[in-house]
Structures are given as structure tokens and as C-alpha cells.
Design brief:
179 residues, four-stranded antiparallel beta sheet, 2 domains, Glutamine Phosphoribosylpyrophosphate, subunit 1, domain 1, three-stranded mixed beta sheet, 20% helix, disordered C terminus, alpha+beta
Length: 179
Amino acid sequence: MFSATPSGAWLPSVVAGDTGIPLTERAQSFLLVPGHPNELAGGKRPRVTLSPTLVTRTDGTPYAVLSTPGGDNQEQSLIQVLFDAFLFRMNAEQAIEAPRFQTRHLVSSFDNHAMNPGDLLLDERIPAAVAAELAQRGHKVETRSRWNSGAAPVLIKITPAGVLEVGADPWGYRSMRAW
């Protein structure tokens, strides 16, 4: 099994001297806040959002691989795809195409490290009654088009018979192009 995250390093990287080590824009994930877990310091690595994922059965045999671009939305999207595929027993494509949500509540890994407490972005296919209930509970709810999910996950499941079941986000290319 192999999984890779096609995200980041969009800009040409700089190679550090003759070390062969490329310095990409992922270093922007460091913070200059003293004492913060992601503080810029020697010997540390910034938190990264890249989340290529391998799933095995309890006996160690391959079960699934998945990944997505999408910055801080990567882990959020992937856990929802995993839940849909394995807890709710959707096939790979159903799990990928199911409506998802995203929060920007935590400190962003990028740019000015903004945070939007209480922020919740819902796919337009999530029922209005659910959005209203979440707003009533104090979330700052916005809906967004399925064409702008902020991620483009792919999932490959391996059935016990060894058959590959594959799903890919049909809207992902459009949503990623908007970045």
C-alpha cells in the first residue's frame, strides 16, 4: 500500500546550500509565539497538515489507503471519509461524495495563523434544520457549495476478497482550482 498527499510545495523550493534539503513554504507553519508548541526553535518540526493514511485490519493486512489536499481541512475531511466508509458502511465513492463539514476554529497552519472561534462550514446538502440547530447551539454556521469543499479526497478500500473499491471526489478539481 502507498498513500501520498498531493498538497503543498506549490512554489519552487529553495535548496539549503549543498545539503539537498528543499525548504518549502511549510515552514510558515511555525509560530513566533514564545512557549507555543509550534514555536520556531532549533531541532523542531512544524505541525504539518499532510495526512497520507494507511489503514490495516487487526491482523495487519491492507484495508484502505486515502489522502487529500486541503491544508487544515485534510484531517477533518479524512476522518469524515473514514467514518462514512467504515462506521456507516458506505462504499468508497459514497463515502467520498457524502456531505462534509469543516471548522476553522483552531489556529491556522498558514498565513497569519488566524483563528475563527465557533466557525463551522457546512456542505449545502446538509439539511437546513441541522444548520439551524447548530447555529442555535452557538456555532457560526455558513453553508458552501459542494463544489467548494476545500478538499479533494480519494479512497481505495481492499475487500476481504482482494477487490479494490475506489472513490474520488468528483468536485475536488474545481474546489482545489479555486485556491
